[in-house]
Amino acid sequence: MAMPREDSANMSRRIFAAQATVGLAALAPLLTTSDEAKAAEKPMLGSSLQGPGHVVCVGAHPDDPEEGCGGTLARYAELGHRVTNIYLTRGEAGIAGKSHEEAAAIRTAEAEAACKILGAKAVFAGQIDAATELNSARARSFQELLSVEAPDIVLTHWPIDVHPDHQVAAMLTIRAYLACKRRFQLYFYEVCTGVETIGFYPSLYVDITATREKKRQALFLHTGEKLERFYEKYDRFTEEFRGRESGVFVAEAFVAAARNLRSADSSTLPGL
Ligand SMILES: [Zn+2]
Question: Is the pTM of this model over 0.70?
Answer without folding.
Answer: yes
